[in-house]
Write a structure and sequence with these properties.
With 431 residues, this protein is α/β, with parallel strands linked by helices. Helix content is 40%, strand content 11%.
């Protein structure tokens, strides 16, 4: 307990006396706010419609921010140190196979349904349905995921959490463990959900005359956001989501290779848990068999995510090197220029990149190295950016006592985005 409060104090005030931090890289030329194509590219006015229905006060982080968290580090760490889990939602576990690759593998979905006053559960086909991708070592028990799911349920929406392969003690039958460049799992999950939603819509269309199915909205956090971005970009017009919002997830993770800020504090903590609890704790024999002695030794000594990926993830999964792996895991991994944007130009649904410019784990350059007002005009014009000057990494604490609000700003933004998507699609269907 003493160590926790000591770290809390350090996160809150380190930097208020020595500002900026060593290695801090905060852009001064990028304005915070919501970016979208106001004119509409190729007649695509859906992002503009979403922006119209997305109330501005729900996406501005400022006056109600926690004042005693002056740095990106504190805005990241304080919520995780102080927020509590509370009552857990009830999740129904469903197993999904991956028909595209690795046919013997399955992964889990945790489905949470809203609950009536009499204790019975229900699904509302008139509300947005959310598919949630958690962080690097998360699951249905991850604090910020639980907070988001509870808010969904309070709105009457169903939330489906996709559990990454091998996490939460889920099995991996073969050799193909989770890695950040695989998008076939989220493709399979989105396909199964979209098929179920379509069947419900067909029945409601016949019986009630409804004009469109409920929207399926992807919400990804940190690593889940990276995977979500990559899936939306790679799937193009075959994407089985209606919209998506990525929270603190990068578009071009190669930028992390020249970002020392995250390696100073956060990455050693993430590496220790990922290596010891997930990789070695569950799949150590498989790792040893594929990595060999030299890589295994370097992997055990790794103190950063980049070093861990270079000697384990990239090697284990057959990538040439860590740069190749980061290129393949990124929606902008093959970006060359505005004239040759690569797969990010294939995004065909509204994809909102929600990021704080003081994020100490994923640099703003992984999101907005190319000016966002330029990027929203590329491809189909489906990209949107919600950038805040501060907020940290999946943080954005509110009020003098941030435990009262938990992750309210961040998670409410995701729900308001989903509601705006539904209103925009309904308006478009009428026209």
């Amino acid at each position: 307990e003493t160590r926790v409060w000591g770290l809390t104090i350090w996160l809150s005030f380190d930097g208020s006396f020595r500002f900026p931090h060593d290695g801090m890289d905060i852009p001064l030329h990028i304005q915070e706010g919501l970016y979208f194509s106001k004119q509409g590219v190729k007649g695509n006015d859906l992002p503009a419609r979403i922006a119209h229905f997305w109330s501005e006060e729900t996406r501005v982080y400022g006056s109600d921010a926690t004042k005693w968290t002056p740095t990106g580090d504190s805005r990241t760490g304080i919520p995780f140190l102080l927020n509590t889990l509370g009552e857990m939602p009830h999740f129904v576990r469903v197993w999904v196979g991956n028909p595209q690759k690795d046919g013997d593998e399955v992964f889990g979905l945790g489905i949470a349904f809203p609950r009536r006053n009499d204790g019975t559960y229900f699904h509302s086909p008139s509300k947005p349905l959310y598919i949630v991708l958690h962080g690097l070592t998360g699951g249905t028990h991850e604090l910020l995921i639980v907070d988001f799911v509870k808010r969904c349920l309070a709105e009457g929406s169903t939330a489906i959490v996709m559990i990454a392969r091998g996490l939460m003690d889920t099995p991996v039958m073969g050799w193909d463990m989770f890695h950040g460049a695989r998008v076939s799992d989220i493709a399979a999950a989105a396909g199964v959900v979209k098929n179920a939603v379509s069947k419900v819509y067909q029945q409601r269309q016949h019986e009630q005359g409804v004009k469109r199915a409920q929207p399926v909205v992807g919400v990804g956090y940190s690593m889940g956001g990276i995977v979500l971005n990559n899936y939306v970009a790679r799937s193009g017009t075959s994407c089985d989501l209606d919209a998506a919002i990525s929270v603190s997830g990068g578009l071009d993770m190669k930028e992390q290779m020249s970002f020392p800020r995250g390696r100073r504090l956060w990455e050693p903590l993430l590496v220790e848990r990922l290596r010891d609890e997930v990789i070695l704790g569950k799949f150590g024999n498989r790792a040893k068999a594929r990595l060999g002695h030299a890589n295994m030794l370097a992997f055990q000594r790794a103190a950063s995510i980049q070093a861990l990926d270079a000697h384990s993830t990239a090697v284990y999964n057959g990538y040439r090197n860590v740069k190749h792996y980061y290129s393949e895991m990124s929606a902008m991994g093959d970006f060359e220029s505005i004239e040759s944007v690569g797969r990010i130009g294939n995004v065909s649904i509204p994809l909102c990149i929600f990021h704080a410019l003081d994020d100490p784990l994923i640099t703003w350059r992984a999101v907005a190295k190319i000016p966002p007002d330029v990027m929203v005009e590329t491809g189909h014009g489906s990209l949107m950016f919600l950038l805040t000057k501060s907020g940290g990494h999946v943080g954005w604490p509110l009020g003098w006592n941030p435990t009262k609000e938990a992750w309210a700003f961040m998670n409410n933004a995701g729900i308001h985005f989903g509601n705006a998507v539904q209103l925009a699609l309904e308006e478009k269907a009428k026209n």
